[in-house]
Amino acid sequence: MGFGRSEHNKRFEHQSAANLAQSLASLEQVLYKPCDLTELAGIIKSQNVTDLYRAFHPGDYEKEALQHLMELFDLELHTAYSLSLFHEGQLPFSKERLPKTFTQFRKRVENLAVVRPLPSPDALPQHIDLAIPRVCMLSEVNASIFYHFNGGEAQAKAHLESYFDSQRPQTYKLVRNELDGWDNSTKMSPWLAQGNLSPRQVWYEVNNHEAHHGENDSTYWIKFELLWREFFHWYAHWHGRDLFKSSGLKENERDWGQDERVFENWCSGNTGYDIVDACMNQLNHTGFMSNRGRQLVASCLIHELGLDWRLGALYFEHNLIDYDVGSNWGNWQYIAGVGADAKPVRRFDLEKQTQMYDPEREFIDFWTESDDLDREERKCG
């Protein structure tokens, strides 16, 4: 069941790096990309590096890579929490007392102070010349056929401004479960996942919008969803490899299915469940899927097809342009009933969900019957 990263996934990441390279070039800096940890270690050694700056990442692989470098070299480590709302030291509980559910977590943290984002610097120290590849500029990177989702801080800030200057935040909670469309959710997740935006920037834009347009359930719910993301961020950090265990956080192992043909049908949108097939076709053509769609296809894979939830999580990891280790694996555990949830399972009635969210079958018909050209011309969310 091997598969590599999708072109959508790779493109968005490359665009993000290219835009960063362009921004750094305006400050007379160069963005280098070591091919692996060995090459990075060689740079540290050859340049007599004494201080290492990093953005904190909750992933197990990233933490192991950092630990390896710290064991090799006597480095002073400087950490920025640019992927989360809070610093680890702000949290009012220890690793051993991490709340077991989101609701418990939210009640403990939602009134904590969120640090205001800093402005971009006007100048940086002189860069060093290295004999390794530089990241190319944006002109050399193909743009997305789905033009809304192009990676990079410039695109991220433009979208952030456009969204919060509109009235869309005022109706977010009412439309967030729709399966398709650009305006049915904030669409911040790809840029958040790549670090093009920080959750603090979004948080303060919500505050600013509320100050000018008023607060309501929808504006609060944007913060509510940021707190869900925050929960899974620390969930991934503190649970480590348990994030990838078949039993998750539970003690009892289950005999999950591994049928390759059934899994391939799910991946390619050929399960026979129309709503699921439409969602999977959308993912495969765009690299994106609505939150409701993700819940439905996950429920189908686990509870209708009887497959190992980790297969679905891995497929999402390789295909989503907004892949985030905590949110992805934590949510799959949630649906499988092996993670942070008071309920034993989360099983969705697919027929009922179809009637609720696609009663006229417009979404299903488009993503199961339209040809590729029609899909490419659609301004898809």
TrEMBL record:
A single BP term in Gene Ontology? photoreactive repair
Q: Name one GO molecular function term.
A: DNA photolyase activity
List residues binding FAD: 172, 185-189, 322-324
Q: Which cofactors are named for this entry?
A: FAD; (6R)-5,10-methylene-5,6,7,8-tetrahydrofolate
Q: Which UniProt keywords apply?
A: Chromophore, FAD, Flavoprotein
Q: Where is this site: Electron transfer via tryptophanyl radical?
A: 256, 309, 332
Cofactor: how and how many bound: Binds 1 FAD per subunit. Binds 1 5,10-methenyltetrahydrofolate (MTHF) per subunit.
Cross-referenced SUPFAM superfamilies: Cryptochrome/photolyase FAD-binding domain, Cryptochrome/photolyase, N-terminal domain
Known function: May have a photoreceptor function.
Record protein name field = Cryptochrome DASH
Organism annotation: Vibrio ishigakensis
The major lineage groups are:
Bacteria, Pseudomonadati, Pseudomonadota, Gammaproteobacteria, Vibrionales
